[in-house]
């Protein structure tokens, strides 16, 4: 049995009629888990990174820390301060 689907044109008209312009301002700060030393990671307010040519700024809702980063935090193998968390 076939399921009836709206035409693409009808969907586009519906979406277009519901679209609203919402101004968005990039905040000046964000929260980050900042590595401060061996087994010392703190949630801090830090500046939002500046973007350069050819770059984009992505707002991340949730981020993890991988096992390798946990080892770096536990052993102090990297200089501080540092923001780990590439596991989006």
Question: Would you kindly provide a brief summary of this structure?
Answer:
The chain is an alpha+beta fold and 88 residues long. The chain contains two helices and three strands, in the order H-E-E-H-E.
Write structural notes for this entry.
This protein is α+β, with helices and mostly antiparallel strands and 88 residues long. It has a domain at 26-83. Helices cover 23% and strands 22% of the residues. The chain is built from two helices and three strands. It has helices at residues 8-18, 67-75, and strands spanning 29-37, 40-47, 82-83. It has a three-stranded antiparallel sheet, with no helix packed on it. β1 (29-37) and β2 (40-47) form a beta hairpin. The radius of gyration is 21 Å and the shape is elongated. The mean pLDDT is 82.
| Rg (C-alpha, Å) | 21 Å
Approximate shape = elongated
Strands across the major sheet, in which order? 2-1-3
Q: Helical amount among residues, as a percent range?
A: 10-25%
Structural class: alpha+beta
Q: What's the multimeric state?
A: single chain
- How much strand? 15-25%
Mean pLDDT: 82
Point out poorly predicted stretches.
none
Helix-strand string: HEEHE
Gap between N and C termini: 40 Å
Number of strands: 3
Number of helices: 2
Largest sheet: 3 strands, antiparallel
